[in-house]
Every structure is written in C-alpha cells, then in structure tokens.
Amino acid sequence: MSVSEENEEENDDETEKKYNCPECGRGFNRKFNMQTHRATHDPNRVKPFACEHPNCGSRFTRKHDLKRHINGIHKGEKVHECTVCRKPFSRKDAWKRHIATCGKM
C-alpha cells in the first residue's frame, strides 16, 4: 500500500481526529498529515502541474492530483456509487463522506 493510500484510509476513518487544521477544521489522526494539509491554504504555494483542458486553468502541486482532476472533472469517470441513492462519485473520499450520511436524514 502506498503512502497516499495509507493517508487516504486514515482520513476516511469515522473515528475522532486528534489534530484539526486551524484554517478549515479538517481533522487528521497524525500531526504530520495535518501539517502537510495546512500548506494547501497557502496562496503562494507553487503549483507546477497545470491542466491543459481548454478554459480550465486549474493548477496542482502534485502530478497525482492533476491526473485525479482530469479523470474526475474532464473525463467524468465515476467509479464509486452509493448503494442507497445510486449517486456516482469520482473520488473515494467524497463517496465515503456521502455514504456516512445518505439515508440517515
């Protein structure tokens, strides 16, 4: 399992997080992951990976994030589906947040 997969699994847990981002409140189980996340709020952060889709203009710090953006936004890949309402998601983290509350209202 890669580090990014481990981080994704860690952040998807439904347990209470020990470390919260002071900017947005997002919770993390590890201090290192929260500190890495905090950099996303820096408006001067270098983003060398640019989306070349016409009129998009999105930029990313990691090549992986650019690829995920292209697959989910421009190619419309939806590989995760809610078993309750059938809503499709391109990202596993968004799908997991959704299924935690779908049908519980």
UniProtKB/TrEMBL annotation:
SUPFAM superfamilies xrefs: beta-beta-alpha zinc fingers
MF annotations from Gene Ontology: DNA-binding transcription factor activity, RNA polymerase II-specific; RNA polymerase II cis-regulatory region sequence-specific DNA binding; zinc ion binding
Protein name: C2H2-type domain-containing protein
Matching Pfam families: zf-C2H2
Keyword S-adenosyl-L-methionine assigned: no
PANTHER family hit by this protein: PAIR-RULE PROTEIN ODD-PAIRED, ZINC FINGER PROTEIN ZIC AND GLI
Main subcellular localisation: nucleus
Compartments where located: Nucleus
Keyword Nucleus: yes
Source organism superkingdom: Eukaryota
A GO term from the CC aspect: nucleus
Domain C2H2-type: 19-46, 49-79
Record's keyword terms, sorted: Metal-binding, Nucleus, Repeat, Transcription, Transcription regulation, Zinc, Zinc-finger
Coiled-coil region: none
GO terms, biological process: positive regulation of transcription by RNA polymerase II
Region (Disordered): 1-25
Compositional bias of kind Acidic residues: 1-14
